Fold each of these.
Amino acid sequence: MRRDENNDRLRGVAGWTCAAVVGQENDVCECEAATEICNGRDDDCNGIVDDEPRVGMRCSDDLGGAAVCSDGSCACDNGHTSCDDTCVLLGSDPDNCGACGNACVPNATCQGGACICDGETCDGVCVDPGTDEDNCGQCGTHCPTGASCQSGECSCPAGQEACGESCVNLTTDDDNCGGCGYSCLASSYCYEGSCDSDSNYPFPDAGGICPDGTALAALDGWAICAPLCGAGGSCPQPEGGGDAIYGCGLADPGSSMDCEFDSDCPDCEICYPDSACHFPPWGCAVACDQNTDCPHESLWCVQGLCLYPYDP
């Protein structure tokens, strides 16, 4: 409680009560001190109603930096409007553009009380073509899965390339091995950009090309690069033995004659581990001009040599 006998100065000041006191020549004014707020009263009992800057600072805490204390109430200063108890500029506030609650969409700004798209409008939506993965560079350009849109261009992570709708690693992706669209066939895998397998035979490269001394052939439905056999003679068993080709389900198993050595078999057949003569998957490199020049109907004349046909 604060008391003051200068009743002429304090009489009529909101927050003070002045009255006659026995033994006092003049009225005594009293005030219950409290924190000064914007309410038209002298809350802190210093004789000043709503004194600045403390009251104005408290209004700013409540309504934002543009608030002032006016006539006992916190209000927005000239040019600002109170929206949800916050002072804003309707001409530039993106959450209250032109009117309270009128929010601009992402990538748009509020200019003169109207929302303006700073990027491009795609299907009625304002987007930033520099970063939007569904409209990268222009409307409708979708980045592949895993890619991001940077400066208007789709970019895959380091070590990956865009193939169709996905970012892939060309050194390990079985469907895009060494290049987009180069698929490794069954029982093979992509290793360092080339199709490989655990068989005794190499696989063609991403372009379907076999190394010198081999030719494209079929092994259990997938492509291999089979070694060429000696022209005119029986076909030697591949290095590493016949286990890799035994039981591979060839369309024509050959004569199935009993055998101990390749020389026991008809021309272009070899002796398999089941002690029976069968056609090897790579055929026999007998010189030819047409299919009928080959020693068996299962062989085709391919680039001047009789070979078992590759039919994936």
Amino acid sequence: MVVAGTTFCGLHARPGLSRSLTGLAAATYRSRAMRLYRAFRQVAVGMAFLTAALAGDALAGRNDLKLVNLCPQAASQECTWVERDASGAVTGVSIDSGGKSRFRSLMSELGVVLAPRIPMPAGSLGFAGFLVTGEMGITQISRNQDYWDGVRAVAPQTPNLGRPDSVLTTLGVFLRKGIWLPVPALELGGGVVNLLDSQMLSWQAYSKFALHEGFHNLPIPSLSVRGAFAYLTGTDQANLGTLSLDVLVSKGFGVLKTARIEPFGGWSLLLITASGKTIDFTPLSDTDWQANTAFPGQEVITRHRVFGGAKLKFGLLAVIAQYELYLAGHSRDESVVSAVDRSGKQSAFSLSLGLEF
């Protein structure tokens, strides 16, 4: 420690120098804190506006769920699962195995669309790092399969005349923060994603632990594990939750001493839980309360994902692109009546643009 007014190695320490340095450090810290505060505030306001804008029934769109469409229609335009007695009174609803398979398959592909993507390399942000991003995702679906009849875009009497788009688009905002406790190289994050042309919101959070990182001058990649969860709101038709368990590997390098690019890749296991909410299977009648029932809860739906991408860092700007491939689903629910996941192979692309402090 150099005391003001003394001489050390021939250099004279001016009075007040240590106080100036302390003041400079404090000012730098305050400036960084204000930038983080403004970023938090802007994202919080954006999330609030996004939630409020999607809250009204008037905005119900083509991609919102309408699960009664999964039921074959009789000539009377009534669901064939509705059971009536000799007098014509409704006695209940019996969903057959085909209907349960369609529900399971729809939840499988929709779970992929709204699953946590989290386009990021294996390395953490560091305990002082902070990243705020806006993200867009596009995901392929099996639009011509009968299980996609269960959205508002489809009229049950003429299901082939109107279909959902072959690619669904999501937009979201996210916050990510590196922390030191309870273990080093830990990163936490969360955000919300909206499926466009719907009221559905996927609320997401994750935790990533870097097993090793920081070998910038050696040909050793970073390696991490990550767990993430997504929960669906904005629909009165179904409950849907997705858990992802990921393994990531990446290696970064500098570009012309002005930018840094970090390619990455990984594998994920998706565990999707789905159950129906009570809906009216005789929507043309307001008195048949016994026709109000729900699709039964499904045993866990499993999907596998491989992905790869790259992160470009230039100053505060971070741009991340990621491609994902989801293998076709084959899981079954044998709890009561067999329900089979018939979902197809899906591909997706994610683009993230943000500021990293």
Amino acid sequence: MKNSPLLQNLVLLAGSLLFLAILLEIFFRFMPVYDGFSFVAVNEQQPIFHARPDRTITSSKDWDFYNARDIRINNLGFRNDQDYTVGGLHPLIAVIGDSYIEAVQVDYQDSFYGQLHKSLEGKARVYSFGYAGAPLSQYLSWAQYATQTFKADHLTFVIISNDFDESISWRNGRPGFHLYERCDKKTYCLKRKDYQISPLRKIVEASAWAKYSVYNLQIMSFLRKMKHRIKNVTDPEKPKTYVANALAVVDPEITKESKIVIDSFFKDLPVYTGLPARNINFVMDGRVYDAAGDTSFEASYFAETRRYFTVQAKKMGYTIIDMKPVFSTHFAKNGKRFETKKDAHWNESGHEVVANELHKHYNSRL
């Protein structure tokens, strides 16, 4: 009995698609596809958010593999060329934050903490703890880890625009982080949101073609945007205005909640770290540093929350290193911007300026 033409065509199509998939997989395995960090599960037994350790991954952006570079994940699953050990001859500085600590836009030696480690060699060690998407609330978890496990003597936090509202559990759906939930009308309590690696994530991380589609092309983000546009086709949303990476104007309730987050953070900080205020400082992102952006910045959500954060920090004796006037001075002098071409993260110049400010701070204290 002969096979029908339809069945033959289906078999031929399936074979052709399989052959094409194999060719694409082979091709992308030779290209600098973004690997992803491969984060481990977060739960009661393993509460620290970190990546799978002891690896070198490739980082790149967009379809054209922009800014491709190798990134080392150290022995404890953090982006740093050093392996972390307990104990040492010199004081330990732990720098904590989000994607500004992850810093895949630059090589380790060009990151501000890599430069700071080198400039303070013989006086202090510098360890980094941070990954993209982490909010202010998650910083407390890493700060506790740094002080309890590695006996960190000093802490530097990098503060950016979305650190505050994304610390609230009902505004941040990402698992793995420690987030604030309401305890009562005026305070929040820190709660861990467990993370389990999904089967789909395992499939993506096993295929270079899949990683290119998900990480470089951001296909999932594209599909979500298309779904949202189709859903709202009859009533399109007005274009949103951002200052830094937060909405310029938000609901007053979000601003109120963000201030409660800030109050809760400062209440929890000495409990989680055990360090005196003089040993802790905050680097405030100076994203808007050109004169053209000053007007919109001063009226924005980020400006209001960073002002509130700064006032509360100083009341408690913490040091604020505000990069906005520093960046503004440098930009007015030489016209060099501090972000990479394709995103708003600091480039080598931005990291260098931050490193210099931190070096001045620590060199006078160590």
